[in-house]
Write a structure and sequence with these properties.
The complex is a heterodimer of chains A (about 550) and B (about 425).
Chain A (H helix, E strand, L loop, with lengths): L26 H29 L11 H35 L8 H9 L1 H13 L20 H30 L12 H32 L13 H35 L6 H14 L14 H13 L1 H15 L8 H24 L1 H7 L3 H31 L5 H28 L13 H31 L42 H14 L7
Helix pairs in contact in A: 1-2, 1-3, 1-15, 2-4, 2-5, 2-7, 2-13, 3-5, 4-5, 5-6, 6-7, 6-8, 7-8, 7-10, 7-11, 7-13, 8-10, 10-11, 11-13, 11-14, 13-14, 14-15
Chain B lengths: L12 H22 L12 H34 L17 H30 L7 E2 L2 E2 L1 E7 L2 E11 L5 E5 L3 E5 L4 E7 L4 E5 L4 E5 L11 E5 L11 E7 L11 E7 L2 H17 L5 H9 L9 E2 L4 E2 L9 H4 L9 H10 L29 H11 L13 H13 L11 H13 L2
Parallel strand pairs in B: 3-7, 6-12
Antiparallel strand pairs in B: 1-2, 3-4, 4-5, 7-10, 8-9, 8-11, 11-12, 13-14
The chains are: A mainly alpha (about 550), B alpha+beta (about 425).
Chain lengths: ~550, ~425
């Protein structure tokens, strides 16, 4: 174990803010770079969501100059949130936490890691530039022929930008796979690996396998747009369903790219903050792999209204099967907190919020898999609601849980818990009342992606918009909390949550090489409640913080 | 620290009470959820809607049980397993329970198999082709739906011929007429991008896929059978909605299904009058033009106050007759309007980028087929749209046919092929429906 350097609970030297603006191959710097960039895009995409909800306050088209302006707005909202916020945000936490959890000094390929990050700013410029020149308005799904024969140069830039982001994602994932498989300490077998690492491994395998299909689809789209080919143009012998098949072969697994790391975060946070081992550790780890595998067999449920009718049944069945590994995780988490000593920290609240909201997304997911019912609600607000329960109620809640959980490790300071709880309440209820009523308007007959709707849905839409503004406001609370805590938060110490995984067995923030020696992981990453664990935690505490009073 | 592995989970009387309350709340709550089912779905206007809604009710029951199970256990955990005060203890070191893990793998697997089986049954039942589709007057007719940005067009191939031997095709624009018990089967074809034909009250939806017009396009099908809705006044109307993003006007791409009470109502209120109107158009070309122009999808892009059109994708038709003569040097107003309709690429109004759909006597889209006589009537009608029309309105019956002959080389029958035979045939048709 590293020698104790800070006997006083004093601040550990941390990188200067200017270090974050430079090229760096340190995974911790890169992690923060990913995180801050992704959060900035979250604010941009969120502001767009606010404009969308403002437009939908009334049934008529009043805020936007045209339906097209509205279409390009939600196209950018979806593109930014998926490609520039959620996926890079998981690269942020993966980068910062995974090498530390493995006791490694850095990622396997530090230079590649930095390169993958620095592809994002130019890609973002290309995508956002497209918004200002004849913007893409075919939705983030970019179905031809709307995205080929009927849209302007912004669509070309959109495809180029998405291409770059795909390259970044592939490079980052290769790095994670190699790091996780090769850079564990000898004592850490796969079955002793923290579950976040399992989740990031599964996610990276999906990304490496699926993203090339996105690249293929985008290449064909670009060729159709600029080189006169007709892959998707029926008049030239092409097929519009070809795009849907290739696109969803990436984009359905991409849902798991966006949510599996969140599930990994949940396993960490729930176990640490309820002081109890993860229930059924192996099944939780394996279910990540199960989701990754089954996730590749379900893509055509996105095409239930366009696919040949006889092909719809097999995809209904595979889609329903994916509920099983997801259910395993949900029940295992319940088993984890059941009987525990739950600390209601902000991180824990967001983790519990994830479970409470994600289960609704899971239930509606099975409903949508049921083909005859899906036919009615396909492409309606029911679907909008479903995927926001998965990607906001799931991914974003998990991102917040991760932020509150690892902020002390990243900055060396604690976040303000009172503000964190206020943030949670605004987010939880703002989210619930924004997205739950969308199920109802969808079932009643409101399609998605419309700027105008029939007046009978106005009251519902006003409830949704009002709640969305509350949800939007909640973001300011966490921004304020992060900035304030960065400067004024209480000193965190090495292991404020008294956690057993290795990232807590070093200073906060860790030194550039992470650990002074090769760290030895505790035998069980979640072995809370034993005498041995208590001894281990006391050793860590003495080694880094010098006094034994916990927080 | 004591080893809690053996006595976990412990069963105390309090736990039994909590479990009992929990089960009661779950059961009542799930039942309560099902009471919302009719409130969050549109009227059940088709046979399909009943089986889909039954399936949805089963999904709500299973979903409700899962919902209460998980939220309930979360709530119990939050209430009973919180660390008190400054407590620093850890929870029990309980790593799992293989039996429990097998149970919560197998039971969900069985549930999804059950759901897959019942969904499959509902699907086969609803999507099966039916006998005797589109039954009208004892015959099966073809009903086609054309989707174009941003309007639906419904055409009925009646199977009858006009006295001149031309097939009579009813074009009912954005409205589908049907009646209770008719096995409706629509053939869908898009003219441009992907659209999706959705009738929420019927619980049916199908995408329209672009195909190569030269090889017959890529038709898709949609099937439903309207049923009586309690308390509904007939003819009842239900919206048709475009569910797939198709561009600027996606949100206003809507239509109406009119369900008549029975076949004779359908014939009397819609079918026979429509045929009669085709066989007996008004002699006045302007009046006929006002009817004809509304058969096509012009309203999906153009504004025209006289007909309450308000779309802005294409240029406004208000006062078109005042401008038509000045657009292209050497072209009369009649020639300009006729050219703009049949050869829409000939002239593009500055500021508008979209290519207008093709109309004419031999276009691929059956919904856009327009005879020289229909063109004549529509030009005559548009010539009246303006204060000081550039058209020669006093001699419309010669000026417009001359213009059509000049630009397209086609003869116009200014009597619209009307003869005694047509009138007789229409009387016959009217008689049948009574």
């Amino acid at each position: 174990m590293a020698p104790a350097e800070n006997h006083e609970a004093a601040a550990v030297a941390r990188p200067a803010l200017s270090d974050y603006l430079r090229w760096s191959v340190d995974h911790k710097i890169i992690g923060v770079q990913y995180g801050v960039a992704a959060f900035l895009f979250f604010i941009v995409g969120g502001a767009m969501a606010m404009l969308i909800r403002l437009e939908l306050w009334t049934p008529a088209l009043d805020l936007m100059v045209s339906g097209s302006a509205y279409n390009s707005l939600f196209t950018m909202h979806g593109t930014i949130m998926i490609f520039l916020f959620i996926i890079p945000m998981w690269a942020a936490f993966g980068n910062f936490v995974v090498p530390l959890q493995l006791g490694a000094k850095d990622m396997a390929f530090p230079w590649l890691n930095a390169f993958a990050f620095w592809l994002i700013p130019p890609a973002a410029v290309v995508v956002l530039l497209g918004y200002f020149v004849n913007p893409a308005e075919a939705g983030w799904t970019a179905y031809p022929p709307l995205s080929t024969l009927f849209s302007g140069d912004g669509q070309t830039l959109w495809a180029l930008g998405a291409h770059l982001l795909g390259i970044s994602s592939i490079m980052g994932s290769i790095n994670f796979i190699v790091t996780i498989l090769n850079m564990r300490p000898p004592q850490m077998t796969l079955w002793r690996m923290p579950l976040l690492c399992w989740a990031v491994l599964a996610t990276s395998i999906i990304a490496v396998m699926a993203t090339p299909f996105l690249a293929g689809a985008l290449t064909l789209l670009l060729l159709d747009r600029v080189a006169g080919t007709t892959f998707f143009d029926a008049a030239g012998g092409g097929d519009v369903l070809l795009w849907q098949n290739i696109f969803w072969f990436y984009s359905h697994p991409a849902v798991y790219i966006m949510v599996l790391p969140g599930m990994g975060v949940l396993s960490e946070v729930l176990s640490v903050h309820s002081r109890k081992p993860v229930f059924g550790y192996r099944m939780v780890g394996l279910s990540s792999m199960g989701i990754a595998f089954v996730g590749f067999t379900v893509w055509a449920h996105h095409m239930f209204t366009s696919l040949q009718p006889e092909l719809r049944i097999p995809f209904m069945i595979t889609t329903m099967i994916i509920a099983v590994p997801t259910g395993i995780k949900m029940f295992s988490w319940l088993g984890t907190i059941w009987g525990g000593k739950i600390r209601f920290t902000s991180a824990m609240l967001f983790a519990l919020g994830f479970m409470s909201m994600f289960v609704i997304g899971g239930i509606t997911g099975v409903m949508l898999a049921a083909l005859p019912f899906d036919i009615h609600v396909h492409d309606t607000y029911f679907v909008v609601s479903h995927f926001h329960f998965v990607l906001f109620g799931g991914s974003v809640f998990a991102i917040y849980a991760a932020l509150y959980h690892w902020f002390p490790k990243i900055t060396g300071r604690m976040m303000n818990e009172r503000l964190g709880k206020i943030h949670f309440l605004f987010t939880y209820f703002g989210f619930l009342f924004t997205f739950f009523p969308m199920h109802i308007v969808g079932m009643l007959g409101m399609p998605r992606r419309v700027a105008v709707y029939v007046p009978e849905f106005q009251l519902w839409n006003q409830v949704i918009s009002f709640s969305a503004f509350v949800l939007g406001f909640s973001t300011f609370i966490v921004i304020y909390n992060v900035i304030r805590s960065y400067y004024r938060g209480p000193i965190a110490g090495a292991n404020p949550w008294r956690a057993l995984t290795l990232e807590w067995a070093t200073t906060s923030p860790p030194p550039p090489t992470n650990f002074d020696d090769d760290p030895i992981p505790y035998e069980d990453p979640y072995g809370y409640g034993t005498e041995a664990a208590a001894v281990y935690l006391a050793v860590v505490e003495r080694a880094f913080d010098g006094d034994s009073s916990g927080r | 620290m004591e080893d809690n592995r053996r006595n976990f989970p412990s069963i105390s009387p309090a736990a039994v009470v909590v479990a009992a309350v929990f089960l009661l709340v779950s059961a009542l709550g799930t039942y309560w959820f099902t009471t919302f089912v009719p409130l969050v779905l549109p009227a059940q206007a088709s046979a399909e809607s009943k089986s889909v809604d039954e399936l949805f009710t089963i999904l709500v029951i299973i979903g409700g049980v899962v919902f209460f199970l998980i939220q309930g256990m979360l709530l119990i955990s939050v209430l009973f397993f919180r660390a008190r005060g400054e407590e620093r203890n850890d929870g029990p070191t309980y790593h799992g329970n293989p039996l429990l893990e097998i149970v919560w793998t197998i039971i969900p697997a069985m549930v999804v198999v059950f759901l897959a089986v019942i969904s499959f049954n509902v699907w086969t039942q609803n999507s099966e082709p039916k006998a005797a589709v589109n039954h009208v007057n004892g015959e099966e007719i073809a009903i086609e739906v054309s989707g174009a940005r941003y309007a639906w067009t419904h055409t009925y191939a009646t199977g009858r011929l006009s006295p001149d031997g031309v097939p009579i095709v009813i074009n009912s624009g954005d409205t589908l007429h049907t009646y209770i018990g008719q096995n409706v089967e629509l053939i869908l074809q898009t003219q441009d991008v992907i659209h999706s034909y959705w009738v929420p009250a019927m619980r049916v939806k199908q995408d329209l896929l672009p195909g190569n017009p030269a090889t017959g396009g890529r038709p898709t099908e949609i099937r439903f059978t309207p049923v009586r809705v309690e308390g509904e006044l007939y003819p009842a109307t239900y919206p048709i909605v475009c569910a797939e993003l198709c561009g600027d006007g996606h949100g206003r791409m809507r239509g109406t299904v009119v369900v008549h009470e029975n076949e004779s109502q359908f014939l009397e209120a819609f079918y026979e009058p429509a045929i009669y109107a085709i066989l007996n158009p008004p002699a006045d070309p302007v009046l006929r033009g006002e009817i004809e122009i509304q058969r096509y999808i012009c309203n999906s892009c153009h504004t025209l106050d006289s007909l309450e059109w308000s779309s802005r994708t294409g240029p406004s038709l208000n006062g078109i007759a005042d401008r038509a003569g000045e657009r292209v040097a050497g072209q009369s107003a009649e020639e300009y309007i006729a050219l703009s309709i049949w050869n829409s690429g000939a002239f593009r109004v500055p500021g508008y980028n979209e290519q207008m759909a093709a109309f004419g006597p031999d276009v691929m889209e059956s919904a856009n087929i327009m005879s020289p006589e229909q063109l004549y009537a529509i030009v005559a009608y548009l010539c009246t749209q303006g204060e000081q029309s550039d058209c020669d309105q006093e001699n419309a019956s010669s000026a417009i046919p001359e213009a059509i002959e000049t630009v397209f080389g086609m003869q116009v029958d200014i009597n619209f092929g009307q003869g005694d035979a047509a009138a007789d045939s229409a009387d016959e048709a009217g008689g049948e429906s009574e």
